[in-house]
Structure formats: structure tokens, C-alpha cells
Amino acid sequence: MKMHNHTVSSVTIPPLAAGHLRSDFDLTSAELRSLLELAIDVKAHPAHYGNVLRGAIVSLLFEKPSLRTRITFEVAAKQLGGDSIVQTGPIGGREPVKDVARNLARWTRMIAARTFAQQTVEELAQWSGLPTINALSDLFHPCQALADMLTLREHWGGWAGRTLAYVGDGNNVAHSLMLDAARLGMHFRCITPAGYEPAAEIVEAARGFAAATGARIEVTSEIEQGLMQAEAVYTDVWASMGQEHEAIERARLFAPYQVNEALMAMAAPGALFMHCLPAHREEETTDAVMESRVSVVFDQAENRLHAQKALMVMLAAQLH
Ligand code: CP
Ligand code: NVA
Question: How many domains does the chain have?
């Protein structure tokens, strides 16, 4: 694999050292910042990037449903001068993942995959040799976190010293947000019911990143304390895709953690409301909060496109 800078318009784009985005760990702190800077340029000057994927087809594989991720990757591939094909259903059901990967490598130039097991993304990357993107797994949702960091930067001008509170399940979205916040110097509070905390090794890794930036990464079940002076409040569904059978039990346990107007009032005045979507109104949040002035959920959704385009531009550096 050739690894050298490439230039698009007047912007020099370094390739990503890992060559993939299998998880948030594939981006160094410097690469994360460069990617977000590039996303701002891609958003401002989309036409400059119209040939980056010329002639290239991107494989989009979905084991789970999607609106935002699927459409934004399809639009992104086309706007970058390439195209995409979509396959839905289990990856590795009819044949081993390593065989799927080596087939895709013969026809297409990049993979984005939404999976249950993180291992499936890792195997696709390993066996295809193609730049491979995690489009959500049970453990991570790195593309979502990139869009969210871009959204916060647009609203705040930066991240350092700000506080983002995440309320709800310590899930894939919480993991990716925590890892990015820590590297960007943003304090992160994860407020979850007991037993639904984020994975201990990911919290530990986030604290490792935070040691270099001064960010504080906290996990608590205390709602009021966790929300104190938070400048953004983020929530996600209580039962993620694949956990539907736990929905009733979770709804009971998570009820006090619903991000409603009373909870928003515990945060800093004017705190932003964030949600990766899809949102279940009157469960993890309310219609009033979703539709309120501080809700930036559709900015987040829009930024999925720009952040993923920037990611694909950086990964394309290794295709040439
Ligand atoms: N936020 C997000 O990933 O949305 P989809 O599940 O619709 O792709
Ligand atoms: N945590 C949710 C995110 C959906 C975008 C899930 O995995 O279903």
C-alpha cells in the first residue's frame, strides 16, 4: 500500500496511518483534528473534492437498518466522483467473512460496514486490504462521533474545556463520543443507570487520552450532579439495534434518565441538545426537547455527510 500525501485543490491531505477506521482508535489525536479541519473545508467547498473517488465503487454492507449512515455514504461516494453498492443482511452467513472481503476487493475500492460484531469489521479490513470504515458496530460508532465533534465545533468554535454530558445507555455511541472528546480536550460525563456503564477498558483508554489534553472523563449514575454546568446534553436510544428483546426492562430502568425539559434545566443555561437519531419520542427524550431551540440533531445528521466525505478523502490518499 502506497502511503503519501495527496493534494486536492490546494489542500495537502496526509493518509491515515492505520489505513482504516475500524474504530475510533484508528485515528491518532493529530489525525482526528486534521480530519475535522478537512471536514470544514469539504463542507465549505464541496466542488473541490468532486474527483477524489473518480471511478471508484464503495461497498456498503449493512447487517442492521439505517437511514442516515446509508444515505450519507451513498451521497458521499457520488459527490466525491465515485459510486456505491449496498448489500443488506448478515455478512458471513453464506460464506466466511474473509471470503466476502476478498471478493469485494476484486470489484470495489473501499468498504463501509455496519455490523453486530466488531470482529466482522476487523476481518473485512484484514482480508480485503481495502480501506474499511466502521459504519456502526455493537462497540463503536466512529462516524457519528466525527459528525458530532464537527457540530460542536460549529456551535462553539472549539472543544477544549467544554463539557458534554451523555445521558442513557453506555453504548457504542457513548464509547465513540468519549474517545473523541478525550482527545479534543473536552470534558465528558457519562450518566447511566447502574449496570449500563460504558465498557471499563474504553473508559480507561479515554482517560489515557485525556491525560494528554486535560479532559476529565467521568462515569456516574447521579443525574443532577452529572448535568451540572454541562454545555451539551446528548442521549441515544435505550435499547440499541439487536437489544430489542430488552426494551421493556430497559424502559423501566432508564425512565428517570429521560432527557426532558426538567433534565435540560439541570444543565448550563442554553445547553445544546444532541441525539444521533433515530429518536424515540417520550422514551429517551421528548418531543418538546427534540423540537426546542437548543436541539442541534439535524445539524448532527447533516454533518454525517461532510465528516464521512473528509474521512473518505483521507482514506483515498492510499488508493492512488
Ligand atoms: N445515527 C445513525 O447512525 O443513523 P442510522 O441508524 O439511520 O444510520
Ligand atoms: N446505539 C444505537 C445507535 C443508532 C444509530 C444502536 O446501536 O442502535
Answer: 2
Cell 439541570, residue located: 266
Distance, CA of 180 to CA of 160 (rounded, Å): 12
Answer whether residue 139 shows pLDDT above 60: yes
Domain identity same for 123 and 152: no
Give the neighbor-by-neighbor strand order of the sheet with 110-114.
83-88, 57-62, 110-114, 132-134
**Which residue type is seen at 187?**
H
- Do 41 and 174 lie in one domain? The reply is no
Q: Are residues 85 and 129 in the same domain?
A: yes
131 lies in the same domain as 47? yes
Check whether residue 147 and residue 288 sit in a common domain.
yes
CA of 68 to the centre of ligand 1 (A): 5
Ligand nearest to the CA of 139: 2
Could you say which DSSP state residue 20 is in? S
What domain range is 66 assigned to? 6-141+303-319
- Please state, rounded to an integer, the average pLDDT across all residues of the chain: 96
| pTM of the full structure | 0.97
Calpha distance 171→25 (Å, rounded) = 16
Which of 66, 133, 235 to mutate to test ligand 1, by most ligand atoms within 8 A of the CB atom? 66
The answer as to whether 1 is a domain residue is no
